[in-house]
Amino acid sequence: MKKITLTFLSLCFSIFLGHSQNLIVNGDFEVGASGDAVPSWSGYKNRIATDDILNTQIGQIENGDGSLFQVLAVTPGETYTVSLEYRWVGSAGTAGSDLTIRVKDADNLPFNLPLTGGTMADGFTLDSALDVWFTASFSFEVPAGITNVRFLMFKANGNKPLNVDNIVVEQTLSVSSLERFDFTFYPNPAQDILHISANENISKIEIFNIMGKKVEEIKIGLSQTQVQLSNLNTGVYFMKTYIGNNVGTSKLIKK
Question: Which residue among 10, 36, 46, 98 has the highest number of C-beta atoms inside a 10 angstrom radius?
Fold first, then answer.
């Protein structure tokens, strides 16, 4: 696990995603001193801390109950992708490791937006294993009439501290340059097999990790095929698809 700063993430996004922008402020938790309530975030019983495994600065929802949230301006009808890293601190005395992330209508908090790739219809429940850094990824579409959402992480009393890092919420990329080829790929998130198709031959795809390193280049030469992803680690990737002289970039989530 290597801590990647928000500045570097933004650079990678600008290279592969055009002008995609992280809506979260201080998502890498580099702003603030150890012990401070997390700057730019709201909630209670949260602080800036140092992860004792990575020895890097992170955000922490402290022992017992606590929350961390941020209100984001969004556009109705658009889709947004969420990614973050998290770890339950196993050395704390309380027993539980239970937290579900939700995206709420900021003006109607009882309403939770449906999530794609979440472990529930309206939330993403974190893995409960202790002292392991995980990557979580999911997406949500903003319903009509909603212009502000609350990205919320809340855990009840009786749970261990949760360390979080590199939280990114960004508008999902369009692949408009390939729309006239009826280009599609599924599922996303994907596990081992990715299905891709178009109405003309796809010459190749390239897959890049979040640091901008190309990890796969697959020659295709067919209009539809299946791509093996079993050798990729869990996380967020960028896939460049080549059809004739056209190139489209899209976000790919490996689970």
Answer: 46
